[in-house]
Specification:
about 10% strand; 4 domains; elongated; 6-stranded mixed beta sheet; Rossmann fold; Serine Threonine Protein Phosphatase 5, Tetratricopeptide repeat; 5-stranded mixed beta sheet; 14 strands
Length: about 725
């Protein structure tokens, strides 16, 4: 069996409301992920037409050509991105980003299940969902359903919880019945080769996670008897199937004539469910949702899911024999490694994509239904929840184990360096990486409104204005969107400053109204650098309504830029501190998670995200973000500035919070380490971390300041 892996759930349902109006709703998410619900208008008929063109048989297209059109031909990349854009919208998108961030921080995979109601939505190829391109990856083809970070499946809305229990435990092999049927009046298939491939893949795993029984050329009676007597977990069918009004049809073999003996999907569903089958695999044509189905026609997968069979893998269209053989080989190769079914299907899709190319739709034809209530050997590789409940994060275990007994007084100054090495052993004595990392952008406190004209030091000389520093040979612009706009090249000296402020004035001498107009004009003109710098100056003076108006001018295709996400998060954070009912700290956290995902090597983004996690009580995530920020700062050796001490101060708060909940044998050590961190911060910049100074900093809440003060007692 394979190692247990961490899998987190994200479950969406889509319900037709009439016409082209649909309701998208989160049905199941992890703690810390906000629930979401949106009513949307979707161009479903256009998507259906595109899908018909993509799925159409080439011979049919030749004999029945479409009317001439000046529109570009449909392609999977465009359709996948369009589906993604419409599915993950507004609050649903925020919830999805939060779920991805938590999965990333917990080093797990995200199990995305999509429940589609109605007759039209299931016919669309949701398996081609693809996130919009980031940065320079515009032409990169990587659908969600072909990766291992997101495990995609559908579920039958309205049947959740039915037939989802039972089956073998996590440590027991699954029993599978494989039925192969080749009636004499049907097209010949390479079924014997499929059996050989399956047996070969399972024989390579020791101990095998699946015990296999082959049932050749069964009729209805033989199949029924085998299922009733075998106590199987999985049923695999290889042969011919078709759509039909009674849940589709399975082609079995009449024992007397050798001709087709049909078994309806509804009858098969009842047979499988009554005998405790946990999963059914159909390597047969049109056994899943089909874009060309007539209104009265149903498919095998639909019949099984509606009657509560927990897991069903079926094919949306006809597939060539060679592809069917490859599919079987890839699927069972991964099942033999002990992976859960949805991960096996993702790996199988990627294998088909690699083997036949993105121009062929074979990889998108397998449709997996996975009941959210299923807990059996098909999903056993979920990590134990014991690891989730540990109070001490993994990166502190060694330090705690090696820490000396606590003392009742603060350590003297000559022990401070040694104590810092105890807390951060991985940061001491290491040479800088061969590849230069970007110099961190320093966060500056946001002055009170009456102090806005005084401003703060830019960190590169008081005589220099705040305007953009162009970086890199390709003219990439790194935006520092907090405080003084310190921007430096990747591993090189900063170039000269380009002065471009309104009328040549410094931002500190420009009114908020005028600065807002300048920001909107710059953003509307596509000058993201200049516009964001102006917005930052507005946030620095706490002119939040003006900053909000300016941010609204950012183009939709630039909203995912890390710098933009960070700035939107800062607006939400500062507005929430002023009790603005339209914003909350969780809004800021979601924006900052997006920023960190896009620019994980930015220490400022990690630092701010840590404070957001801390404010929501997610202490382990907060400590991890701060620790990553500290590691980045240690690698980058930034200029001495109070803001470089922010993650150390935050980590002191985090360790104190851990100490309050830790085992009595560990709490003193955590408290001692937190006190040492606070002392280091105060020794480096004593004035900037006093209560009065922190109360003027946009990042610190009253509760955080109170916890910081308590550390001194």
């Amino acid at each position: 069996m394979g190692e247990a892996m961490k899998i987190l759930d994200f479950q969406l349902s889509v319900t037709p409301l009439g016409g082209d109006r649909y309701l998208i709703r989160t049905e199941k998410v992890e703690p810390g992920v906000p629930l979401a619900e949106e009513q949307v208008d979707w161009p479903v008929e256009r998507w259906l037409n595109l899908t018909r063109q993509l799925m159409a048989d080439p011979l049919v297209q030749f004999l029945q050509p479409e009317p001439e059109s000046h529109s570009p031909p449909p392609d999977l990349l465009t359709l996948g991105q369009d589906l993604y854009h419409h599915l993950f919208t507004a609050t649903v998108r925020d919830s999805w980003i939060a779920a991805q961030s938590i999965a990333y921080h917990q080093q797990g995979s995200l199990r995305l299940r999509l429940g589609l109601k109605g007759d039209r939505l299931p016919c669309l190829p949701w398996e081609v969902l693809q996130a919009p391109a980031q940065g320079n990856g515009g032409g990169r083809f990587r659908p969600l359903a072909t990766g291992t970070d997101v495990l995609f499946s559908r579920y039958g809305a309205g049947t959740i919880g039915e037939g989802a229990t039972g089956g073998q435990g996590a440590n027991q092999p699954l029993k599978e019945l494989m039925a192969i049927a080749q009636p004499q009046d049907q097209q010949s298939l390479t079924l014997s080769q499929e059996v050989q491939h399956l047996q070969q893949e399972l024989s390579q795993a020791q101990p095998t996670p699946i015990t296999l029984k082959i049932l050749e050329q069964p009729g209805r009676e033989a199949l029924t008897q085998a299922l009733e007597q075998g106590n199987y977990d999985l049923f695999h069918y290889a042969g011919h199937s078709a759509l039909g009004s009674t849940g589709g049809d399975l082609a079995l073999v009449n024992p007397l004539t050798g001709l087709t003996e049909s078994l309806t999907g509804d009858d098969l569903a009842g047979l499988l469910r009554n005998n405790g089958i946990q999963g059914a695999i159909f390597n047969s044509c049109r056994s899943g949702p089909n874009i060309f189905a007539q209104p009265q026609e149903r498919n095998l997968a639909q019949a099984l899911v509606q009657q509560g069979v927990p897991a069903v893998l079926a094919m949306a269209e006809a597939i060539p024999d060679a592809v069917a053989l490859t599919l079987t080989q890839l699927l069972y190769r991964n099942l033999s490694l002990g992976h859960p079914l949805d991960l096996c299907v993702s790996r199988m899709r990627q294998g088909l994509l690699s083997a036949y190319g993105s121009g062929q739709l074979y990889w998108a034809l397998p449709i997996l239904y996975l009941n959210p209530m299923l807990h059996s050997g098909l999903t056993y590789a979920i990590a134990s929840t014991e690891a989730e409940e540990e109070v001490i994060p993994a990166w502190l275990k060694r330090e705690i184990a090696q820490a000396p007994e606590p003392v009742n007084e603060d350590p003297p100054d000559d022990e401070m360096a040694a104590l810092m090495g105890e807390i951060f052993p991985n940061l001491n004595g290491e040479a800088p990486p061969a590849k230069a990392e970007p110099t961190p952008i320093i966060i500056k406190p946001a002055p009170k409104p009456e102090e806005s004209r005084r401003g703060a030091s830019t960190g590169v000389g008081r005589s220099r204005p705040l305007w953009p520093y162009l970086v890199g040979g390709v003219g990439a612009i790194i935006l520092a969107i907090t405080g003084g706009w310190l921007i430096q090249q990747w591993g090189a000296d900063p170039p000269d400053v380009v002065v471009a402020s309104p009328d040549g004035d410094d931002f500190r001498e420009v009114s908020s109204e005028r600065l807002t107009s300048f920001a909107i004009e710059a953003l509307n003109g596509g000058d993201l650098t200049a516009g964001l710098q102006a917005v930052t100056a507005l946030l620095d003076r706490n002119a939040l309504p003006f900053a909000e108006s300016a941010l609204a001018a950012i183009a939709a295709d630039q909203l995912d830029q890390p710098a933009v996400s960070f700035l939107r998060g800062r607006l939400a954070w500062q507005a929430a501190l002023l009790d603005n009912p339209r914003y909350s700290p969780s809004d800021a956290r979601r924006y900052w998670e997006t920023a960190v995902k896009g620019a994980p090597n930015n220490a400022n983004y990690q630092t701010a995200l840590g404070f957001a996690y801390y404010g929501e009580g997610l202490i382990n995530l907060a400590n991890q973000a701060w620790y990553e920020a500290i590691a980045l700062l240690e690698q980058q050796s930034p200029p001495d500035d109070p803001e470089t001490q922010m993650p150390y101060a935050g980590l002191a708060l985090g360790l104190t919070a851990l100490a309050a909940e830790a085992d009595p044998s560990q709490a003193p050590t955590l408290t001692r380490q937190a006190t040492a961190l606070r002392r280091q911060v105060l020794n480096a910049h004593p004035r900037d971390f006093q209560t009065q100074a922190l109360s003027q900093h946009w990042l610190w809440t009253p509760a955080m300041i109170a916890a910081w003060e308590d550390l001194s007692s």
